[in-house]
Each structure stands twice: as structure tokens, then as C-alpha cells.
Amino acid sequence: EPDVTILSGLKDMVVFEGDDVTFRCQVSHENARDVEWKLQDVALQNNEMNEISVEKGKIHTLTLRKVTEQDIGTVAFRVGPHVSTA
């Protein structure tokens, strides 16, 4: 398998409590495996509060719904050995 790298990393975001916020990370190859999103070192799953998706095969997105003060912290996207944080 080709080594998937991060072409465009996460950007820091400022958001108001109760709003949604979306993070995007572009990778070099479609259908990347071994992908993980974390918030404050806790792995995130796709559910009603965290929407995890892939657009156009290479753009991985994480939307945190109705954020609260507890959501303050570092968001990390990892693909293989490569990590981007915001």
C-alpha cells in the first residue's frame, strides 16, 4: 500500500458554546486506512455529537456538534504515522 501523508493539516478554530465546528484534513491517497480522530487524547467515534466523514475520497472531516466548554482542547487527526493537530 502507498504511504498516505497529510497534504493539508488542521487549522485552529475559535467557536462559541452551542455552535458546531468542522475540522478538515486532506490526505494524499483515497481510501486511507488506519485513520483516527481524537479530542484531548480521546478517540472519537461517529455519533450524534461527532460527525466523521470523508469528502471526495481524500478530505477527512470531523464536525463537533453543539460544543461545550468540555470540548476545549487539542483535536488530532492521524493517518498511519502522520499527525496533524489544532
TrEMBL record:
<dbReference type="InterPro" id="IPR036179">
    <property type="entry name" value="Ig-like_dom_sf"/>
</dbReference>
<dbReference type="GO" id="GO:0005737">
    <property type="term" value="C:cytoplasm"/>
</dbReference>
<dbReference type="InterPro" id="IPR013783">
    <property type="entry name" value="Ig-like_fold"/>
</dbReference>
<keyword id="KW-0597">Phosphoprotein</keyword>
<dbReference type="InterPro" id="IPR013098">
    <property type="entry name" value="Ig_I-set"/>
</dbReference>
<dbReference type="InterPro" id="IPR007110">
    <property type="entry name" value="Ig-like_dom"/>
</dbReference>
<dbReference type="Pfam" id="PF07679">
    <property type="entry name" value="I-set"/>
</dbReference>
<protein>
    <submittedName>
        <fullName>OBSCN protein</fullName>
    </submittedName>
</protein>
<feature type="domain" description="Ig-like">
    <location>
        <begin position="2"/>
        <end position="86"/>
    </location>
</feature>
<dbReference type="InterPro" id="IPR052385">
    <property type="entry name" value="Obscurin/Obscurin-like_Reg"/>
</dbReference>
<keyword id="KW-1015">Disulfide bond</keyword>
<keyword id="KW-0963">Cytoplasm</keyword>
